[in-house]
């Protein structure tokens, strides 16, 4: 058996045991998801290997149409929320929704990741792009930003300067709902 697969099975088993799940069906599902997670973290998707630093001109023209069709929100409404500044996606709304600064940072990151994912097709986004978007929105806090993004809305890989984020399944739904709330 492949060493990576053995490691993934061991880690998944440990996680499922630690969760103390008693229902056999739920235990199977959790184990399956954990194995997928650990196998996926062993081999990053091809997109995550290439650094997303700037939007090139050919993609910029398609971004608005693709993003509008994937979210079922009119382009004009999206342009009231997002902007492409220095070939990067930033929020242009006056205030990001959230009760605390940490909530606002998570919501901002979710909205930015949604735009890169649904508008440009990038799944993994470098932390630097999120930091720049947060800085533009006056929500960047160097000591706590990465810590505030450690929740079930996001998945991350890498360390320090190589850190990359993507939306989890619940995070994708949350980001879409947040975008719909803002456009109402």
Task: Name some characteristics of this structure.
elongated, 9 helices, mainly alpha, 5 strands, two-stranded antiparallel sheet, 184 residues
Describe what you observe in this structure.
A hairpin with a 6-residue loop joins strand 4 (154-157) and strand 5 (164-167). The chain contains 9 helices and 5 strands. A 3-stranded antiparallel sheet has the order 3-5-4. A two-stranded antiparallel ribbon has the order 1-2. The model is unreliable at 43-51 (pLDDT under 50). The protein has helices at 3-19, 24-42, 46-49, 57-71, 75-81, 101-120, 127-136, 145-148, 169-183, and strands at residues 82-85, 88-91, 125-126, 154-157, 164-167. The chain has 2 domains: 3-43; 49-183, no CATH class. It is mostly helical.
Structural class: mainly alpha
Q: Please indicate the count of domains.
A: 2
How many extended strands? 5
Q: How far is the N terminus from the C terminus?
A: 53 Å
- The share of residues in helices is 55-70%
Biggest sheet record = 3 strands, antiparallel
Order of helices and strands, N to C?
HHHHHEEHEHHEEH
In the sheet with the most strands, the strands line up as 3-5-4
Rounded mean pLDDT score:
81
Q: What is the number of helical segments per DSSP (H or I, 4+ residues)?
A: 9
Strand content: 5-15%
How big is the Rg?
18 Å
In the predicted model, the low-confidence regions spanning at least 5 consecutive residues are: 43-51
The shape, in one word, is elongated
């Amino acid at each position: 058996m492949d060493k990576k697969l053995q490691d993934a099975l061991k880690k998944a088993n440990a996680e499922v045991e630690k969760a103390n799940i008693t229902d056999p069906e739920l235990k199977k599902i959790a184990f399956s998801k954990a194995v997928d997670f650990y196998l996926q973290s062993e081999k990053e998707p091809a997109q995550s290997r290439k650094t997303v630093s700037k939007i090139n001109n050919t993609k910029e023209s398609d971004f608005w149409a693709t993003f509008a069709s994937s979210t079922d929100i009119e382009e004009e409404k999206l342009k009231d929320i997002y902007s492409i500044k220095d070939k990067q996606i930033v929020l242009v709304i006056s205030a990001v929704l959230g009760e605390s600064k940490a909530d606002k940072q998570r919501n901002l990151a979710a909205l930015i990741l949604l735009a890169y994912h649904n508008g440009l097709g990038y799944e993994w986004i470098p932390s630097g792009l999120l930091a720049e978007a947060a800085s533009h929105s006056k929500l960047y806090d160097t000591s706590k930003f990465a810590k505030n993004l450690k929740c079930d809305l996001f998945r991350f890989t890498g360390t320090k300067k190589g850190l990359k984020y993507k939306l989890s399944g619940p995070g994708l739904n949350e980001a879409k709902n947040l975008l719909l709330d803002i456009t109402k």
